[in-house]
Design a protein that fits this description.
Layout (H helix, E strand, L loop, with lengths): L5 H14 L6 H15 L2 H16 L8 H25 L1
Helix pairs in contact: 1-4, 2-3
């Protein structure tokens, strides 16, 4: 399930975060969310995000944290901005 389109990932992230809000499914959803996170985001960052997602889902009263959406923002907004600013610094 490799998802390449960043906007498809955004929609899926919003859906997965919404599923995480459903009460009483935490024990089932926690490993599923970790698996989906590691499939959506490869490498070290995906592994770390999957651990965070699992932990957030398994812990009581932390379901309101939009882990998938935060990871999407990090990957496609903040990371790109940071890298482009870093490249400008190196070039000057």
């Amino acid at each position: 399930m490799e998802i390449n389109n960043k906007y498809k990932k955004l929609v899926l992230s919003l859906i997965f975060d919404a599923v995480g809000l459903i009460p009483f499914i935490d024990l089932v959803w926690a490993p599923i969310s970790a698996y989906l996170m590691i499939k959506m985001y490869k490498g070290k960052e995906g592994k770390i995000a999957s651990i965070v997602s699992f932990t957030e889902e398994i812990l009581p009263f932390s379901d309101t944290i939009p882990t998938f959406t935060i990871m999407w923002l990090y990957t496609y907004v903040f990371k790109e901005v940071i890298e482009s600013k870093f490249e400008k610094i190196i070039k000057s």
